[in-house]
Amino acid sequence: MSDDKIGMNHGAGGEVMANLISKTILDNITKKSVNGGVSLDDLDDGATIPLGDYELVVTTDGHTVDPLFFPGGDIGRISAAGTINDVSVMGAKPLAISNAIIMQEGFPIDDLDRIIKSLDETCQEVDVAVVTGDTKVMQQDKLDGIVMVTTGIGIAKKGEIIRDSTLEVGDKIIVTGSIGDHGMSLMSFREGFGFETDLKSDVAPMWNVIKKALDVGGVTAMKDPTRGGFANAINEMASKSGNGILLQQEAIPIKEEVHAVSEMLGIDPFEVANEGKVVMGVKADLAEETLEAIRSEKYGENAAIIGEVVEGDYVIVQTPIGGERILEAPIADPVPRVC
Q1: What is the total count of domains within the chain?
Q2: Phi (first) and psi of residue 34, to 5 degrees
Q3: What are the residue boundaries of the PurM-like N-terminal domain, all occurrences included (predicted)?
Q4: Which CATH number belongs to the domain containing residue 318 in this structure?
Q5: pTM above the 0.90 mark?
Q6: Residue 55's CATH number
Q7: Within a domain: residue 21?
Q8: For residue 52, how many other CB atoms are within 10 A of its CB?
Q9: 256 and 313 inside one domain
Q10: Strand order in the sheet with 315-318
């Protein structure tokens, strides 16, 4: 692919995508914020619109999952959960989503029915309404299956928005569950390993987990580790805050099935998308209480404290025998079309 054409890496959540957004998209947009809220320039999980004593959080996301139905979910569930989670990690209660559907001519109506029911069931888990949408059909040879675009709206009190850039030295890092489940389950399914493993996608709406953490009062920063995976999310949080992070490798929850598939395929589970996990910074004196609160919810049962924020410029992973390695942000997600 030539330098002047879009390639798959441009949509994969890593360094290549970041460069495209910075140079081609942001540089060509004039007004990027409303009333001084979190803006497009901040490249957080959403933007905010201050209104009196509150701030609306708005986010939007496109979904091109392959396959449309996979162990643990489908494109409907991922469309709802992904958008709900982007609102939630900004500390806002998700209220509503819109849903635009672009379908290939000949798409089975039974599949569409199943997808929309799945989207609705996911929204119901966290009391989110589907309030508007759009439907388009394209010629059979112009689109592969179905594309869904969801926009989410949430609300928080002014001053209570959580950013991905506000880690402080001494904060503990919590991840709400095992890493790599979504990307590795889809890749396993694509490659025909499904009969050998019970691995399923982690796709889930995370507001109830996040609300429990916020109620404790110690959350300093949050991010949704989707495209580019945990490695991209933790590096972005570190670089935006101007700090380093020291992680304990043995504390990071990774399922044995994920390890097995990653070894077969040669893919780092730190670099693949997660769709039902949150990475957060928490004040050290409230970390254990926050962890306990998260573990009380079904989507947070395997949460763990995995490291802390330190002075420095890098994300460092410390091995059980005392060695250290730098965890870098990926160039791109090695598993395309999973979210």
Answers
A1: 2
A2: -125, 125
A3: 44-155
A4: 3.90.650.10
A5: yes
A6: 3.30.1330.10
A7: no
A8: 6
A9: yes
A10: 219-223, 279-282, 172-175, 304-310, 244-248, 315-318, 324-326
d(CA 339, CA 248) in angstroms, rounded, equals 28
Structure-token pair, residue 293? 């609160």
Using DSSP, state whether 279 is helix, strand or coil: strand
- Written as six digits, the tokens of 65 are 């999952």
Write out the chain's pLDDT in tens, 339 residues.
Answer: 456 776 666 565 566 677 777 777 778 888 788 888 998 888 888 999 999 999 999 999 999 999 999 999 999 999 999 999 999 999 999 999 999 999 999 999 999 999 999 999 999 999 999 999 999 999 998 999 999 999 999 999 999 999 999 999 999 999 999 999 999 999 888 888 655 678 899 999 999 999 999 999 999 999 999 989 999 999 999 999 999 999 999 999 999 999 988 988 889 999 999 999 999 999 999 999 999 999 999 999 999 999 999 999 999 999 998 899 999 998 876 778 888
Element (H, E) at 335: none
Q: Dig out the tokens for 235 from the structure.
A: 């590096």
Supply the DSSP string of 55-106, one letter for each residue: EEEEEEEEE--SSSEETTEEHHHHHHHHHHHHHHTTT-EEEEEEEEEEEETT
